[in-house]
Amino acid sequence: MIYLLIIIAFILTIWAQFRVKSTFNRYAQVPNENGLSGYEAARHMLDSNGLQDIPIEPVPGTLSDHYDPIHRVVRLSEPVYYERSISAVSVACHEVGHAIQHKVHYPMLVLRHRIFPLVNFASGIAPFLLLAGFMFNYFNLIGIGIIFFSASVAFQLITLPVEFNASNRARQVMVEQGYIRNEEERGVAKVLNAAALTYVAAALVSLLELIRLIGIFNNRD
Asked: Is residue 71 in a domain?
């Protein structure tokens, strides 16, 4: 049964990735009525929240947008930075939502930042521990590998409220400050919800894999 769930979750991940790209491309063809570019919307949202010192940089690629909390910079992919579409302003404002989270010390973002070094190490070594443990039938090594892998799963679960909160902040500001018209809010919601679904699917796959590993470990033990 667990294997069937993992397959379903994996298919969901592929579908989520397809959906986010297709939804972004669809609304990238729909200009926002106020004619704001992604950069202009992001700049205005940052400035109105007292974050005038945070720069915005264009980066190559598609959907490569992110907020860098270490260097405190919002980086927008070129289609988002320059274009004046529903997709562009939605993604740009979402990334600014992360900058605002950083400013107000949003608890889940703070927790994610604090555990990142540990998770980065654990996620890198966990596959080797698990592989060696199963190859040599060494239960203790398998158990340690599962613990390390669970840190990565926890990180993905913590990421979910961070992403949803950033999207909610973006939508609220976009409507209140007039970046979009009320009739455009549906398109914004579709773009942001499609992006959020990719995080949900990835977290689900990892969680089911963790459950599978624990089940195998318990049966062997």
From this structure: no
